[in-house]
Design goal:
This protein is of the alpha+beta class. Helix content is 27%, strand content 30%.
């Protein structure tokens, strides 16, 4: 697969990033990464509901629920992105550029934080996280950020190993507080913090 490239605008919450063609063999696929729109909310929420069902069917530790109001606010503020191919939303994720409630004194203002990557169940198995990571790397380079950070469930070692295979390193384990400043799914949760360094 060829390394994908992005066109980027200024470092703002409302920017849209366009993904150029990614070629595998003789097949050419066009992907577009852009801000999730308010009209996408119900579909994005459905993807989370399907992910929760999948986790429970397979006895994976994962989301119990998704904070609807937080998701709506995230979309409205331009902090949720979607990966599109031929009009289909393949996956979506949230971002922030400061996460002091979870990263505490490690918050230096030099990271992009990726939250709650969710995949359309009709497009599983396509290594979509690789495309999310490439987007985050290019964004970080163009905006002078030094790390990409993720947190995930400590009780799910398989997902930790998944991120490690993409080059993330475990920083520490941490238990979140019970504060309304965190979305419901992030409260009183044992999580593992992981970091990808931009070289």
């Amino acid at each position: 697969m060829t390394r994908t490239k992005y066109s980027n605008s200024a470092h703002t919450g409302n920017q849209s990033l366009e993904k150029n063609s990614s070629t595998v063999g003789q097949n050419e696929n066009m992907y577009l990464i852009k801000n999730t729109e308010v009209k996408d909310f119900e579909f994005i929420y459905w993807m989370y509901e399907e992910a929760i069902k999948y986790q429970k069917r397979n006895n994976y530790f994962g989301w119990e629920s998704i904070d609807k109001e937080y998701l709506k606010k995230e979309i409205k503020n331009g902090l949720n992105y979607k990966l599109i191919q031929e009009g289909n939303i393949l996956c979506a994720w949230g971002v922030v550029f400061s996460d002091p409630l979870i990263w505490r004194e490690m918050e230096k203002g030099t990271s992009i934080y990726i939250h709650r990557v969710v995949v359309n169940p009709n497009f599983k198995g396509q290594k979509l996280f690789q495309k999310v990571l490439e987007w985050a790397i290019d964004y970080s380079v163009e905006n002078s950020l030094t790390t990409i950070r993720i947190d995930t469930w400590t009780a799910n070692p398989a997902i930790i190993e998944f991120y490690e295979k993409y080059g993330f390193k475990v920083v520490e384990e941490y238990t979140t507080g019970d504060t309304k400043d965190l979305p419901i799914q992030h409260r009183n949760l044992d999580i593992t913090l992981l970091e990808y360094s931009i070289r």
